[in-house]
Design goal:
single chain, alpha/beta, 5-stranded parallel sheet, 5 strands, Rossmann fold, 57% helix, 8% strand
Length: 289
Amino acid sequence: MAMNDVLDLVERNYNELSPQLQLAARYMLSSPDEVALYSMRHVAERASVKPATMLRLANRLGFETYNDFRQGFRERISEPSSGYAARARKLQMRQSDASRSSLVKELADAELDNVQRTFSEISDADIFSSADSFIRANNVHVIGLRKCASVAGFFKYATRVFFPQAQLISGNAGLFSEEIHRINSGDILLAIAFDPYTSETVAAARHASKVGATLVVITDSSVSPLNVAADHLFVVANRSPSFYRSLLGAMAIAQALVAAIVTHLGDEGVAALEKSDQTLRNTQTYWQG
């Protein structure tokens, strides 16, 4: 069974699984290369379940053994490929002892892999369709909390000239509920979150879906709780040797959305940027050396 077939199988059956099996399935969907490269015990530990749970998941999905299940994940590794992602995977397969590799190199390989994996599943049409939704929306709302706050803040900052009334949902002074309920039909919400998902971000996404607002999601899994009938879903790779998940893939998608919005706006977008830049220079916001 091919890699995508295995992932589709896991995703299709996800809602019918027990909570423990869902925990294992979520990790497999977010980190399929880990499943291909490492032992069942290692993957179970990373997924915070027991090894027996991995076997039960394989059986539940119709596989006699865990190795039969794992084979679908390994097939993509063995397929001819080039680029940073392929080299990073081969490096991981060669170096099972982490002490042999440089932390800097390991981080660099992981981040390059994250970017390539993220964009391998996303087309120009996906990005430009999402950008068009932002431009057509009555109001723009953005939420990304805790570790994802920097991505949300960047998007709000980078588009402030085009969407001056955009709202960055932050919950300052305990106003989360009020900020979330400002989202109405005809608006758009960009929601960003990785596992473990912040409750307020999930609540915002669900409210947006309920009231008929357009929902754009940047997350780490197709079964993320943010994917409640998302109109535009961007699943990003976020593997990292560090204790925090990588934000590079999410930031790259945010940058791509900003670039697509500017492209869609054409002369209007350029004029807005020129006006903003001139104002900043006139007010000596930029240091003059």
